[in-house]
Amino acid sequence: MARRKNTKFIDPRYFMNEKMERLQEVKIDGYDYGLRGDDRHEFNRAMREDPEAAREVSRMSIEQVSDWWSNYKQQMAMPGARDSYEE
Question: Which of 33, 72, 76, 80 is 20 to 30 A from residue 57's alpha carbon, by CA?
Fold first, then answer.
């Protein structure tokens, strides 16, 4: 195949060793973990507001999330809980 005149050609071999950085985002929805109604909405709001908790949940199995969620709600209900949870 003929090359066009007056065009820049970048040899792709220069980029063979470069790795593309991938951003892994996971959509976490309480419905997937068996939460329904207001509990599901509270869970979704908590995941949006607390990225560290969302990362923690994404590593858990479905069975573990319900126990974690009840503990998380109890901790957040206590005064000053957000400071102690992040430690």
Answer: 80
Alpha-carbon distance of 21 to 60, in angstroms, equals 25
Regarding pTM above 0.70, the answer is no
Q: What are the helix and strand counts (H, E) for the chain?
A: 4, 0
Residue 82: in which H helix or E strand, if any?
A: helix 81-85
* DSSP characters over 8-21: ----GGGGTT----
Read off the pLDDT of residues 21-33 as tens digits, 9 standing for 90 and up.
666 666 788 888 8
Backbone φ, ψ for residue 82 (5° rounding): -60, -35
